[in-house]
Design brief:
about 25% helix; binds magnesium ion; binds adenosine-5'-diphosphate; eight-stranded antiparallel beta sheet; alpha+beta; 18 helices; 38 strands; eight-stranded antiparallel β-barrel; D-amino Acid Aminotransferase, Chain A, domain 1; Dna Ligase, domain 1
């Protein structure tokens, strides 16, 4: 085994590799960019080396720097993680030339599998089934058109050098082929620097099922069963599970044999994944075709670890240091069911637009990290960290394991409910919607699942107004009690010696303005009316959250405030609500009525004033569009507009100052 390795990556995978290395007594060297100077992966390693500016091309892709860092630190081997340099044969060669072990396959295997078209020709020879299609070198558009016609529509045009779901075009009919080809080639040239394409039959309602393989330097091969990665958005995986629902032992064996044949054909060493597209036939049987081989550890490897009880990074390190495979095929078996959910900084309701921000609140379910367990949370971030635009939007992976798929699903839903992230838009609620939707729950899996279930996946409001408003008011009252002194005249509990004291609130929730009334009764109880709901309100702060009782229901809620927005988390899901306390504002007790900052992330619609304008208190200055409704920004004081800091149409983050107002 090595004494020291360098991890040429960042984020969760760098932390994950470091954890296994540490367990094996192997020292680790991290590399980091400017943006990652204080990143979790740096702290997870024994030493670290700065390798450049934040953009990947200036740091994580600069292999001369990385190799120098490995040599200077005395590392014997380099683990590339996934992405970045992991499938770069030149990097693998440069490592070897520098006397470093590349923890991955030989460069020749990376090269053989690097191009989709060439790897398909190779697989064809090895007897691995292929999707009917054209994988030839001749790229004459007229020839490509004829090949597509012969395959029959719909077809899929794929960039041969493509990856990460990019460079693919489905073509429904003959007339659209030429245009789709041109557009695919353009994208391929821009993204991968090469415009060669292949054409495949477009499989209808297919499943993506891949086989984890492992080889050692003695020519031994095993497969560690399959993963179903059919739940995808933009041809990218969202949820992955193992074993694949509906898989039969015979089909598993056949796919395993095909995957091992693929690995053997390129003299593969280390961890690799053979991806298959699986056609579901009318009689319920499944037919599989080779799609591509990923010559690295995959993002979704933890589900395989969960069902086999094996640490794949440990296997990688053992094989790379010259040991033989830890187990033989007949020593491997499947226990239970595992599912992984990718937690990404993105807005599913806005076409999965990647998001940036700061993890103001980052609360995880009680679980272990980087260890095989029923609940595993692998991440590369901590509370307070910023998610920059430089890197992949995936911030964490939640992996659950259970005796059955149903148990794993229930654990996943509960764990997602306990994952609270404020300050960064994520897909956590969207993942919960998938987990709970009929198709997923009953394992009707295919790559069209998200599109088919769109009506129940997007723009959902899992938490009702009554609960959100009651939780927000409870938090307000708890905050007031916390700051209250023993002086009876400064008490804010609303108690009056005569009559009932009432307090009005105005909420902005799910695009609507709603009034609410809180009544303090003689007996000390609280009555709260909002929307269609009315009832007694009672609550207590507990270490598990607010124990909230309202209108006959009782549940635990968490309320996190960020600016004016309250983020409410409870078992059903998370939502946001804004409250304006009219009682406090009416007396003008607070001088900061009104705001010059964005109450939440959104878009500037217009400014009602110009630089230099004199404005009166309360005058409308700007209009913003956020949370599906318009918000006006009014002047808190009489003053002069000194500067407009944004332009109409600009996207702004929560708390962004929109304009400067100075006293006259
Ligand atoms: P996989 O099956 O492993 O997800 P993909 O072809 O989807 O295979 O590529 C890996 C994914 O990981 C891509 O979405 C890519 O953008 C992402 N990725 C690559 N490098 C990193 C990294 N260093 N950190 C986080 N994500 C990464
Ligand atoms: P990438 O390198 O981007 O991962 P793949 O060839 O692995 O590209 O394909 C990615 C995804 O595209 C698959 O998981 C599947 O959803 C879809 N796909 C690929 N080939 C086909 C096909 N022939 N028919 C239907 N869908 C396909
Ligand atoms: Mg793929």
């Amino acid at each position: 085994m090595f004494d020291k390795i360098l991890i040429a990556n960042r984020g969760e995978i760098a932390c994950r590799v470091a954890a296994t290395a540490r367990r094996l007594g192997v020292q680790t060297v991290a590399v980091y960019s400017d943006a990652d100077a204080n990143a979790k992966h740096v702290a997870a390693c024994d030493e670290s080396v700065h390798i450049g500016a934040s953009a990947p091309k200036d740091s994580y892709l600069r292999w001369e720097k990385i190799i120098k860092a490995a040599q200077a630190s005395g590392a014997q081997a380099v683990h590339p993680g996934y992405g970045f340099l992991s499938e770069n044969q030149d990097f693998a060669r440069a490592c070897a030339a520098a006397g470093l072990v590349f923890i991955g396959p030989p460069p020749s295997a990376i090269a053989a599998m690097g191009l989709k078209s060439e790897s398909k020709q190779l697989m064809d020879k090895a007897g691995v089934p292929l999707v009917p299609g054209y994988h030839g070198a001749d790229q004459d558009p007229a020839l490509l058109q004829r090949e597509a016609d012969a395959i029959g529509y719909p077809v899929l045009i794929k960039a041969s050098a493509g990856g990460g779901g990019k460079g693919m075009r489905a073509v429904e009919q003959r007339e659209d082929f030429a245009e789709a080809l041109a557009s695919c080639q353009r994208e391929a040239r821009n993204s991968f620097g090469a415009d060669a394409v292949l054409i495949e039959k477009y499989v209808q309602r297919p499943r993506h099922i891949e086989i984890q393989v492992f080889g050692d330097t003695f020519g031994n091969y095993v497969y560690l069963f399959e993963r179903d990665c059919s739940v995808q958005r933009r041809h990218q995986k969202v949820l992955e599970e193992a074993p694949a629902p509906g898989m039969t032992p015979e089909l598993r064996w056949q796919m395993g044999q095909a995957a091992v044949a693929a690995a053997r054909a390129v003299s593969y060493v280390g961890a690799g994944t053979v991806e298959f597209i699986v056609e579901q036939l009318a009689d319920g049987s499944m037919k599989f075709f080779f799609m591509e081989m990923n010559t690295r550890l995959q993002v979704e490897h933890p589900v395989t670890e969960a069902i086999t009880g094996q640490d794949l990074v440990e296997w990688q390190l053992r094989v790379a240091s010259g040991e033989s495979l830890p187990l033989k095929q007949d020593q491997l078996s499947i226990t239970g069911h595992a599912i992984e959910a990718r937690i990404c900084a993105e807005n599913p309701d806005n076409n999965f637009l990647p998001a940036t921000g700061t993890l103001d609140i980052y609360r995880k379910p009680a679980c272990s990290s980087f260890a095989i367990s029923p609940l595993r949370f692998d991440d590369g971030v901590r509370q307070g960290d910023s998610i920059s635009p430089f890197y992949d939007s995936m911030v964490a992976k939640l992996i659950v394991h259970g005796d059955s798929r149903a148990q794993a699903l229930a654990r996943l839903d509960a764990a997602l409910a306990q994952t609270h992230i404020v300050g960064l838009t994520t897909n956590v609620q969207f993942l919960r919607q998938i987990v709970r939707c009929g198709s997923f729950a009953t394992a009707k899996l295919d790559t069209g699942l998200i599109a088919r279930e769109a009506a129940v996946l997007f723009h959902q409001q899992p938490v009702g107004l009554a609960l959100a408003a009651a939780a927000d008011v409870a938090q307000t009252l708890l905050d007031e009690r916390a700051t209250q002194t023993a002086d009876p005249f400064s008490q804010t509990d609303g108690w009056r010696s005569h009559g009932v004291c009432e307090r009005r609130f105005e909420f902005e929730f799910d695009g609507e303005q709603v009034h609410a009334l809180l009544s303090y009764r003689h007996d000390g109880s609280l009555h709260f009316q909002v929307g269609q709901s009315a009832g007694l309100l009672d609550f207590a702060a507990t270490p598990q959250g607010i124990d909230l009782r309202y209108a006959g229901r009782r549940q635990l809620v968490h309320v996190y405030r960020k600016g004016e927005v309250a983020h409410i988390h409870c078992a059903q899901g998370a939502t946001q609500i804004i409250a304006i306390d009219l009682l406090l504002h009416a007396g003008e007790a607070h001088a900061d009525v009104g705001r010059l900052t964005a109450p939440m992330p959104g878009k500037v619609v217009s400014f009602a004033v110009q630089c230099g304008d004199t404005v009166k208190k309360g005058q409308i200055l700007a209009v913003m569009d956020a949370m599906k409704m318009e918000h006006t920004i009014a002047a808190p004081i009489d003053g002069v507009v000194a500067e407009l800091l944004y332009a109409p149409g600009d996207q702004v983050v929560e708390g962004a100052e929109l304009l400067k107002l100075v006293l006259q």
